[in-house]
Amino acid sequence: MTRALPLPDAAPCAQDPTHVEAVVCVPTFRRPEMLAATLNSLAAQATHVAFRVVVVDNDAREMRGVEVATRFFAEGRLDGLVSVEPRQGNVFAINAAFGLARERYPAADYFLMIDDDEIAEPLWLEEMARTAREQGVDIVGGPVLPEFPEGAPTAYRHHPVFWPAFMQSGPAPMIYGTGNCLIARRVFEGLAAPALDERFNFLGGGDTEFFTRCRRAGFTFYWRQEARIHEHVTPGRLTLSWVLQRSLATGAINYSIDRLAARSPYARLRLFAKNVAVTPLSLHRAMRMLAARRHPLAAAHPLGVAVGRWLASFGLLPQPYRHS
Questions:
Q1: DSSP secondary structure string, 125-136?
Q2: Structural domain count of the chain
Q3: Using CA atoms, how far apart are residues 264 and 99, in angstroms rounded to an integer?
Q4: Which residues are CB-contacts of 299 (< 8 A; sequence separation ≥ 6)?
Q5: Is the domain of 103 the same as that of 199?
Q6: CB of 104 within 8 A of CB of 6?
Q7: 28-38 residue pLDDT tens
Q8: Which CATH number does the domain housing residue 92 bear?
Q9: What is the pLDDT of residues 169-195, one digit of tens each?
């Protein structure tokens, strides 16, 4: 169970939940320095939106994220609260953050999320909230733009796993990740709890499955290209093994989402047919990417996705979010 922690000398007016329009949720796990940079970017928001921040530390042993968040709140740089989710896994942490935010700030209409290795531009929150109000949509997404270290090879700079799904503002069929999103309260109220399916806890993709259910339930999406967040790409991700594993995981996630919806024998037969069809399609996409002078590593991505689907169909699922 998630447990909220008291803040030292918290000003009652700063914690008044009746004057909050939006809550920014920040799940964190063993990244205290990066978390501090993320919170710095939230403290620098240029916005008229009354917002609070909810930090959920998924490391119940060291709780270094708690120390960082508590310092920000105690110094008055941000208003909000911090809690610990002792059950390990990104789905548990995200569900805890959204759940605590809705419970503690009942007047808030919008719930946003940013990862603990991301930096929001100063107008991020303003752009997201304004888009939700003006467009009347249920869910808003924005780009997470990679910041590569100097000298990063071109093969990685142009690889699809690092880039957002859309590149211009407008209505979207759905979004795929919670790393830069706004979700209206009515979305959570219209779906069964918990928000993210715990079966995706260590695989990843719980956010994609959640947004898939949102789309099927009729909720509307909008992409705001101007609501930019930046993510520092660590050297550990600039390796052949990491990129290939990410491609395989994408395929496994896509298959797992399709499998959850395939409840009848006919639907499962269609799912098998989809796997069969994806194989030549992925080869065709890879050849087109090579013809367009894309790097072979990028062209291998659709092939990796197809292989990941087949591996998942045999129960072989990666667990990139399982930590010791």
A1: HHHHHHHHHHH-
A2: 2
A3: 32
A4: 286, 287, 289, 290
A5: yes
A6: no
A7: 999 999 999 99
A8: 3.90.550.10
A9: 999 999 999 999 999 999 999 999 999
